[in-house]
Amino acid sequence: MTLDWLKPAERLGSLPPYVFARLDELKANAQAQGVDLIDLGMGNPGGPTPQPVIEAALGAIQDERNHGYPPFEGTASFRRAITSWYHRRYGVKLDPDGEALPLMGSKEGLGHLAMAYINPGDVVLVPTPAYPAHFRGPAIAGADIHTILLRAENNWLIDFDDIPTDLAKKAKVLFFNYPNNPTGAVAPKSFFEEMVAFAQQHQILLIHDLCYAELAFDGYQPTSLLEIPGAKDISVEFHTLSKTYNMAGWRVGFVVGNRHVIQGLRTLKTNLDYGIFSALQKAAEAALQLPDHFLTEVQQRYSSRRDFLIKALATLGWQVDKPSAAMYLWVACPPGIGAADFAFLLLQKTGIVVTPGTAFGEGGEGYIRISLIAECDRLAEAVERLKTANIRYDSVPSHF
Ligand SMILES: *Cc1c(COP(=O)(O)O)cnc(C)c1O
After folding, report:
1. Residues of the chain scoring pLDDT < 70
2. Residue to probe by mutation, ligand 1, list 131, 250, 273, 372, most atoms within 8 Å of CB
3. 285 CB within 6 A, ligand 1
4. CA 3, 4, 5: angle at the middle one, nearest 5?
5. Strands 205-209 and 171-176: what pairing?
6. CA dist 31 to 25, 27, 162, Å?
7. Ligand 1: distance of its center to the CA of 63 in Å?
8. Claim: this prediction has a pTM higher than 0.90
9. Which of 92, 107, 228, 288 could form a Cys-Cys staple with 85, CB 3.0–4.6 A?
10. Is residue 246 in contact with ligand 1, taking CB distance under 6 Å?
11. Structural domains of the chain sorted by starting position, each given as residue range(s) with its CATH number in brackets
């Protein structure tokens, strides 16, 4: 029973229904029955944080100078580490005092930026499918959200012809993310140039999520939006240490770009939190300074799982695009079954957990996302179970 006077704020009601609820229920049931689940649902990277990062954290925890409230804008040395990393990695020069802000994970920053920049009724453009924080932050802020459908024929890139001019004129903010979660798509530099020209023409704030900046394969180098001349006037870019450095639980990310936008986010956060524990900021600095072989190891781990699973799924009739970045396969559902039903079926018949594409918005219908977070022997076991249950791209049991 909900008490009338204890009803949550209306902004909570603006959140789209939680697609994971039924999946969680099925997962709990399966676990209670002793099913050995193969969980490829979450994007939670497996494996330990690199040892030099752990050692930097241990040292910093022993130093009492790190025990008080951290500075609101993050420690000066972490901000410098961020801007040096940016310069080394992309050749982009940023001012550590004002153009870089540490965050308690990029999800926190994405949500709070929406609160800091979006008024109720403001027009916000968000691709579909998209990482949920890109539409939930604006939903909480009361935005008038217009989705832009991403399509396989366009390699999951935003097609600017899909955005009517009068909508573009009204839009205040556009969120986007390449390398993309969930589709695994990457965007060429020319796309970023087009994006900047589009935003300049229509005076739109661009919010780019570059959370897979370093999780790229086969020599592919993701582009930073800030490499494009003029981008800093109209955009900010989010990064996280969660994925590449196996630091999801540490909650460290950062935003870089336009100083006025960052100042607005900082003002909001000043009223809500104190930022990241200073000792963890020391550890994060160490992560950004890791020698390249740490990255190549992580990249190779994901690309070999990718290659293994694509090949194994092909024997069951699936043709899956080979992503050049991120940690997911975006896999078409067999014809005639929706994303949520297919995810439920996989769980019930095989104990394999995947994310239905609709968790990322209606544009994800017809697809499931498989996270490459298990070793190849577990992936092989998953494919064996599909074979045993006779689940192939062109034949799926009709009753489950
Ligand atoms: C995993 C992920 C994040 C990470 O968020 P953190 O809060 O930094 O852990 C952000 N954006 C996208 C697209 C992601 O896939």
Report:
1. 1-2, 16-19, 399-400
2. 131
3. no
4. 95
5. parallel
6. 10, 6, 44
7. 30
8. yes
9. 288
10. no
11. 11-48+293-388 (3.90.1150.10), 51-288 (3.40.640.10)
